[in-house]
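Hi everyone,

Forwarding the result from last night's run.
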Amino acid sequence: MSHVKAGGTSKNVHDSPGQRLGLKRSGGQKVRKGEVLVRQVGMSKLAGKGTYLARNYTIHAAKDGVVNFISRRKKTYTGKTVPRTEVTVE
């Protein structure tokens, strides 16, 4: 017979590291082809001229140049327009 009471199960004890999302290069900064500009989940920022979007929505520089951020409105599936930031390299 056990002399220690049942400990029960523990939940929510697993911890995963952060994904290091966000801006990797700021506006006006020089970049080279292939550099990561923004790491994001979903399309919170749009890929403009001189950039391309990877499968995981990461925005990369498609050419050497200077990063620029432009605010513009984007139409959603429902027809509503929402503000989005467009990332360009010129």
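Strands lie at 22-23, 30-31, 36-39, 45-47, 51-53, 59-61, 65-75, 81-89.

Cheers,
N.
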